Amino acid sequence: MAPAETYVSQTVxxxxxxxxxxxELTDVDTYTKWxxxxxxxxxxxxxxxxxxxxxxxxxxxxxxxFYEMIIAQLETDRTLMFLRSxxxxxxxxxxxxxxxxLKQLKDRSTEITVAVSFKPVSLFVKTYNxxxxxxxxxxxxxxxxxRLKRRIEKI
Length: 155
What we know:
There is one protein chain. The protein has 155 residues and is an alpha+beta fold. It has one domain (6-154): Alpha-D-Glucose-1,6-Bisphosphate, Chain A, domain 4. The protein contains three helices and seven strands. Strands 1-7-6-5-4-3-2 form a seven-stranded antiparallel sheet, covered by helices on one side. Strand 3 and strand 4 form a beta hairpin. The radius of gyration is 16 Å and the shape is globular.
């Protein structure tokens, strides 16, 4: 029996139009300013974001070194989806996907939702760590969105 997919999301309203939020989401040089668990992020082929492009993420405290994500969906000012393609040695999750969805509100602010879905690699991981993983991911998403909001609203 295969483990079920897990879905975690967080939403925040940023007092800025979607185009401003989008610029921040598609500028890898700013990622470490609002995702503090990252030491560095870079595009394997620098230039404008495009579907199929690979980004390399280097965590601050990870002995595995790095992981990679592919841009799977890209709709300017609306949706940015990453699929994790590279893993470290101690993999607990598979089919890991992160999606940022932007929605313009009537007052020209932007509602941004970040959603993460994944499948644990085994039933053991699912039963033993499922609640902890969901709680930790939800907490990290909330903190990242709060930092992103503060950063953009300063602009």
